[in-house]
Design goal:
Elements (H helix, E strand, L loop, with lengths): L1 H7 L17 H9 L8 H11 L1 H7 L3 H16 L14 H14 L1 H5 L4 H22 L7 H18 L1 H4 L11 H22 L7 H26 L1 H8 L5
Helix pairs in contact: 5-6, 8-9, 11-12, 12-13
Length: about 250
């Protein structure tokens, strides 16, 4: 929110074209703090806060397997008719469905879900994931359309399949220090990349051939800058780092 205020009401605004000006008002400041105004990437944190507050109701809905399945199906059917969480408040009105599916898995199949995927699971997950991504890409490109219920089922299937496929990598990829900065990479990279990309564009020859080098150099530069920022914050201002990172240490 502070970043948006600064670039909206200072000389820096001349270098950030196409961005919505932050109107300083009590309502917008409250939305910037308690919602995700100005930083849509944090939509899911707002959702998680609301769903955590609604935990007693969700626990009641999934108290039995039958009621849990019926509740999830009912919410999916309602979404088909446009009855979802209000998207004036939530980034995606269907987000509660995925949360409910996760709650159902966590309550009844957690141990099974945490086991290492078998060869058969890997094969099935690969097929489901590839087909799902092809369909999702086609939807994004507006080549095809799916009913809301089927789209929700598609995304849920992709998510579960990706989880299973990660077993191919988890034992082979070492957990290196800079990986612990992934949350701030997710949060910061958008704003920082827009600056770095423009600076590289100014330095590089103005040719379409430099679009890919610009993209790759932007990615590397942004990751290095964020990791450097995290390193110094953890070393010299660790309490502040824990506040802005949500105390994520792993």
């Amino acid at each position: 929110m502070i970043f948006n205020i600064v670039i909206s009401h200072s000389f820096i605004s001349n270098y950030f074209v196409g961005r919505e000006v932050f109107d300083i008002s009590a309502q917008n400041i409250l939305l910037g703090i308690f919602h995700y105004k100005g930083l849509p990437a944090l939509w899911y944190i707002f959702d998680l806060i609301v769903f955590a507050l609604a935990a007693p109701v969700i626990e009641l809905l999934i108290s039995r397997k039958t009621t849990a399945i019926l509740s999830i199906v009912a919410i999916m059917v309602l979404s088909q008719f446009g009855i979802t969480l209000p998207e004036t408040m939530f980034f995606d009105g269907t987000s509660i469905i995925y949360y409910m599916i996760g709650a159902f898995i966590g309550k009844y199949y957690f141990q099974e879900f945490m086991k290492k995927s078998k060869r058969r699971d890997i094969i099935v997950s690969t097929v489901v994931c590839v087909i799902g991504i092809v369909f999702q890409y086609s939807i994004v490109m507006e080549w095809i359309q799916l009913p809301t219920v089927l789209h929700v089922m598609l995304l849920a299937a992709i998510g579960i399949s990706l989880w299973k496929l990660l077993d191919l990598m988890t034992e082979k990829i070492e957990n290196i220090g800079f990986m612990k900065d992934s949350f701030l990479v997710y949060v910061i990279h958008g704003n920082l990349a827009s600056i770095v990309t423009k600076l590289i564009y100014i330095v590089f020859p103005k040719s379409a051939y430099f679009a890919i080098p610009n993209y790759l150099l932007t990615a590397v530069t942004v990751l290095l800058l964020i990791h450097t920022f995290c390193y110094f914050m953890k070393r010299y201002a660790n309490p502040v780092y824990e506040v802005i990172s949500g105390s994520r240490n792993g």
